[in-house]
Amino acid sequence: MNWPENEKFIFLKQGSKLSFRYRALIHGGDAVEAKIAEAFAKYKNE
Question: Which of 23, 20, 19, 21 has the alpha carbon at shortest distance from 39?
Fold first, then answer.
């Protein structure tokens, strides 16, 4: 698995687990009104 932002590879042993976190934010209006940057900063620090 390759993370493009730092070009580092992760090798997993068979049977090991890898978790991903996703979040969807549904909003009306534009990104500024919805405070998307603030919501992402909060999510990133969780």
Answer: 23
